[in-house]
Amino acid sequence: MKRSFLENLVVGAIILVLFQTVVDDVAVLADWPWSIRRLFLYLGFLFDLFFTIEFLVRLYLSYVNGEAKTYFFRGYGWIDLIASIPLLLFSSGPVIYGLLAGGVPVFGLGRSLNLLKTVKIVRVARILRVLRMLKVVRQLKQTNSVMAQRHVGKIATSVLTTCILVFSVGSFLLQSVSGKSFEQMYWESVESTSDTLNKASSAELNSTVQTVARVLPFLLKVKAEGKDIFLRHDSFYLATRFGPYDYFYEQRGSLELYFDYRPLTRLQAEQSLLIFIIVLGLLLVLLLYYAPHFAITVTDPLFVMLKGFKEPSYNLEVKIPPHFKEDEVFQLAEQYNEEFLPLKQRNLSMGEGETSDLKWEAVSELFKKG
Amino acid sequence: MPPEVDKAKLFLERLLSNPMLQGYTPLQREEQILQLFSTHASQLAPLLKSNEFFPGKSWTTLLPILIQALFELTDRDLWAILEPFLQSDLSLSFLSFLTKQAVPEVQVRAQLIALLKDILQSPEGRRVSTGPLTAIQQGGCFRYIDEIFERKSYIHFEITKVQRLRMSKEEIKGILAVTLLLKSAYVLYISEGMHTYTDRIAGVIQGPFAEKVIRALQKRIPLLPVSIVESAIHANMSFGENRFIEATARLASIFASRYRTFRAGLRVDRGADTPDKSWFNVARKNYKFYGFDIKMLDELYMIAAEMGW
């Protein structure tokens, strides 16, 4: 009972965290107020913490029972690992640390802290959350058959893990081999803007800033010697719409530049949503199309035959769909229908192998209860 | 009544209320319990010998007590269903079609009840009545009559043209019910120990014995037309050995066999065919063994397949 409650809690948490991940991406794309997006970041951290604790507890308990290896390799422990600790360390952990530290120490110091890599890892690592869907698949009892559960689970694990890993690794590889990506162009613009404004004389600085701001929409703010000389949005808008990781800070001499980082975040959110939809689509196809097909063509006929072999009074035939009758399973089922069942019926009629439907276990219970 | 019988009834009531026996008629449940006694005697005996149940009683002493208690419980449940059926629900309107004169139905009903009570006195009579009485109680066989009359195929031809029962399907249902009720009556005229499981296979009884039983039954229920008695007793003969068996007898033979193991409300497993369709198909393979009419089985199989029964 307790175990069932905990399992249900975990499944509930997985569904919620997937929902949180999607809404988080939608919030970025729809430019939701920072206060709401911040809430989702905290939620993401709490979920990652929950799953990390869950993994460690499961690992510990399986270790105590001498089943750590079985849990890790056969019980999908490796998925629990990939979808917990790396996320806490590389995704929600750094984000929350940044927020608690006021944002600036981590996100505002620009390329000196290798912001690009950090944020990229954060976004890519988030995709691993989708792997948690597999944990839900494990819990789903799409059929009563252990064999069907295992087969569908294996296929789902292989397909989803491959899909997510290919996407994660592929996104890094593609960026290194492709020509000018949006991201590269972004950073080149930042670099050239910083250089241009830094080289401009004091007299020309204002007009140069205005010119650059017109062609570079992600230039947010320019400060020279501590004074604001350009402000794209008013301070209320900045305070309500921008979080610590929504802008990028660059300092060149006495010049301080703030760039809007959200275009890059949006791009990553789009990719994240896309992979989420692909994975969800694959999972739905596997669960709603492939699993029933597997059950109809493999496990259901086997189940009926097994029951017919085991239970003397069970005399239902295997239903053979005409378009699958050439399948080996259904050829076997035909033999069962045409040969075994009539023979069994004749034997029963002669009084051979007759048993009561009352199982002895149930009868002996009467004596235990008194 | 010995106090042990009451005690045995309490124990058996709990056994009978087991969910595994749900969907069975009283006689089927009785058979299941007797089967349990037979297969698990060695396990039951020491447990029932305990202080809580029947201290000190040996299995050989206890078994007759248990069987007596079981029969009494079964009769209570069985007659609670059969009595109203025989008193009023059973349609005897076919009598006037067959005799062309008014027949006192009340007396016929009373004679049927008395005969059935006699049949159910013996363990053999109870065993061979399980199939026919289950067919009546579950009522599933009557829906086939509706379909047979709808299709007007082989069985309809056999009933109306060959057996010349030119009457409505409601009358045919009545004839089928009485045929099923009387089917086991032959047990009243057999010597003890003569039959073991033979009611489930072809040629339970042979022609001369059947004629003897029919003559005896005619005296027992004189108000019932002889054709009905013949149909009931011929339902125990093999169609393979006697091609002139009445259509209603052949139908009763099939339905008695079908309903012997029928279980109401049985959940059909995914991947399995429906119960009736499965049973009729298996019976088609074994028709010679059981002495069934293969053409009737084919039609009943088609009906079951089309109706999803």
Assembly level = heterodimer
Order of strands, widest sheet of chain A: 2-1-4-3
Q: Helical element count of chain A?
A: 15
Work out the number of β strands of chain B: 0
Q: Would you count the extended β strands of chain A for me?
A: 4
**Could you give the order of the helices and strands of chain B?**
HHHHHHHHHHHHHHHH
Cα distance, first to last residue of chain B? 45 Å
Outline of chain A, from the CA principal axes? elongated
Number of helices of chain B: 16
Helical residue percent of chain A? over 70%
What is the string of helix and strand elements of chain A?
HHHHHHHHHHHEEHEEHHH
List low-pLDDT spans of chain B: none
Overall description:
The complex is a heterodimer of chains A (370) and B (309). Chain A has 370 residues and is of the alpha+beta class. Chain A has a domain at 311-357. Chain A contains 15 helices and 4 strands. Chain A has a 4-stranded antiparallel beta sheet, with helices on one face. In chain A, strand 3 (247-252) and strand 4 (255-260) form a beta hairpin. Chain B is globular and about 65 Å long. Chain B has 2 domains: 1-89, no CATH class; 91-307, no CATH class. Chain B is mostly helical. Helix content of chain B is 67%, strand content 0%. The interface between A and B is large, with 36 and 41 residues.
